[in-house]
Amino acid sequence: FTMAESADARLIASVDRRKDVFLGQLPEDFLRVQPTTQQLQEVSDHEAAYNLQMQQNAAAQGFTPSNVIGTISITVLQAKLAKNYGMTRMDPYARLRVGHTVYETQTDSNGAKTPRWHRTFQCYIPRGVDSVFIEVFDECAFTPDELIAWATVPIPANVLRGGETHEDWYPLSGKEGENKEGMMNLIFSYLPLSGAPMATRVIPGQVPLVAMYSPVYNINPCYSPMPVTVAPVPYGQVVQPDPPRRPPQLTDDLLQELKSMFPNIEESVIKSVFEVSRGDKTRTINCLLELGT
């Protein structure tokens, strides 16, 4: 072989090797992670929660719903659980459902069997509601939050009828059996709408987490639920409602920026996450990063 023939042979061999490597056009979804059904359900729940929350806030600022009989204050003080599940100390938090409204306490890190929250919630009592459904979860970092205990707590009659303040310990059910998972310490107080000497007003920016009750327990919302806080106003004084806040607007430039950062997530999902994050760009990006992992 001459040097020219040897060079041609090497060139042909190189071209043949390239043909073996480049197999053609890659599919559009190559190396792209598609959101799971659970992640899409999470975004849907967040969107529903946001829409209902806005409706509740607007209603509270303008008028009291016709099916409401009064306002109840529920203070979640502490719990004494029967068992610590897992190898490490549990990080418990409590979730309350009053009618169709759901509230959550903060997490007591390393609270284990004796978590303390001291969290007070103010909420409307719809007509016909005479109990509160309570759940206790162990917050987990890499697995779904574990449901530890639950209970349906009847609102004491002396609270609803007599307007008294009532504190008591209530039994919890769970894996150990009915009413054998521990106790929770609660305080109830009630203010009826008719004949009340004080009016109530919702402080802007502090609204309850109003959500569709979902069986998906590993949802980590991208927003921080806060209870309604009421401020007393002397009877007879007219309370001027705050002007309604316009929902955040997602500009075309920001949408294109988010789509370029997360090309594997659909545009409708990006818009939903932006609305749930209340127009906060940083929070939106963090939520989308969670969806993409």
TrEMBL record:
- Specify the signal sequence span: none
The UniProt entry's GO biological process terms, in alphabetical order, are:
autophagy; innate immune response; ubiquitin-dependent protein catabolic process
One GO CC term, this protein: cytoplasm
Domain C2, by residue range, is 53-170
One of the entry's Gene Ontology molecular-function terms is: ubiquitin conjugating enzyme binding
Where in the numbering of this chain does the CUE domain appear? 250-293
Which organism is this entry from? Argulus foliaceus
Could you tell me which InterPro entries the record lists for this protein? C2_dom (IPR000008), C2_domain_sf (IPR035892), CUE (IPR003892), Tollip_C2 (IPR037301), UBA-like_sf (IPR009060)
Mind telling me which Pfam families this protein's record contains? C2, CUE
UniProt protein name: Toll-interacting protein
Keyword annotations for this protein, in alphabetical order, are: Autophagy, Immunity, Inflammatory response, Innate immunity
Write down the CDD domains for this protein, in alphabetical order. Answer: C2_Tollip (cd04016)
Q: Which family, according to UniProt?
A: Belongs to the tollip family.
> Can you tell which superkingdom this protein's organism belongs to?
Eukaryota
Specify whether Disulfide bond is a keyword of the entry. no
